[in-house]
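User: If only I could read backbone structure tokens as easily as an amino acid sequence. Those tokens are not coordinates but codes from a learned vocabulary of shapes. Could you go through the record with me and say what the backbone is doing? Here is the record:
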Amino acid sequence: MALNIPRKRCKVCGLPRFVNIAFKWHENGTITANPWPWGTNFRVVIIQNRFINQLLDVFKQKLELPVDEIAFEAQRHSTMAVYKPFYDKVPGLKRLSRLESVRRFLLIRSNEVASLLGMCNVKTLEYVPGEYGIAEIKNPFNANLLAAVTAGNFELLELKPYKVEWKRKTENDYIFRAEASGEHSEFSERMVFEATDDPIWFPSIFKRSLAVVSGRVEHERCPRCDAPKGLSRLNWVEEGVIIDSSVDSRVVFLDGYTINTVTRELAGSLGEGASEILMDTVREYTVDHSNFIRPVTGNDTDGTKRMAGHLMEFLNDLPLLGQGNPVKFEIDGLRVNIIIDNPYDVNILAGSLQGLYESIIGGQSLAHWQQLTDVRIACAFEPA
């Protein structure tokens, strides 16, 4: 069953209706899955494809660690953690899934979800339950991470490990082959998510999401579908491709755990001073690619008003994208103080902010940051 571009859109804001059904935008700067269709309230972020791809490349170049393998295992386990509650807790589904026809049905549904979330467009070419599957993949958001999503999906369906290989047909067209492997990577066990026994039918007590603190973000809502109006900047231009018109960049709805798991594993491998190394790597990347994140114009002689405008645009985007809640922003000349609650990743967000600040002032900076709690960071920047 092929998936067409979503046609059911809100008549007022034009957003595909599934978005506000599948996810919830909260007042604390986070997005979570709606527990009723998903079976869990896992955290979600909307993030630029090129940011993910290029930042992982920078980590590979600068840190001399097996970043691809770490990212693969992080995404595989995140995928399994996302789907497993529904798979386990819908009465009778686990037993029914041993039927080949049900596994084919579930595979089709997961392909549709991948397209709706901007991951790719999937066409299954062959599927032999318990042995292998072959698919044509168009426009993958990241080939390695998508292979991990595929491996996680197959492992849940078949109850055994799968390996995934791919080859490129054209620039945006791939052939993926998933095959039962019988073994996991050496990194696999370190990234397994803890199981939860909370019942699907009581989402109010479901603790799947990361710890967060409350907030007072006021999303302006569509009067008809209740989705945040800011989402109207997202355009589903073709199957598996979502464009954020505000920055003219492709974005993807991604679980809020993969990137955090990658940086945690990298930090463990780097040892002492790991956070500073990771943040500095992100800072350098952001300086080199600031226009991808938020177009910067002018120079530091334009004064604090221009600086405040650019930084506020970046900070105001965070709750809409599920990346955190800025609760304090102070500027005194060229010195800036920021506090953010519920950051999706401390190292990446702090590094991105410092890199953006340096792009705005056109020079190097001194950064003072503090992790006040597990879910609150404070950053202060001033020219070096």
Observations:
- Confidence is low (pLDDT under 50) at residues 1-5, 196-209.
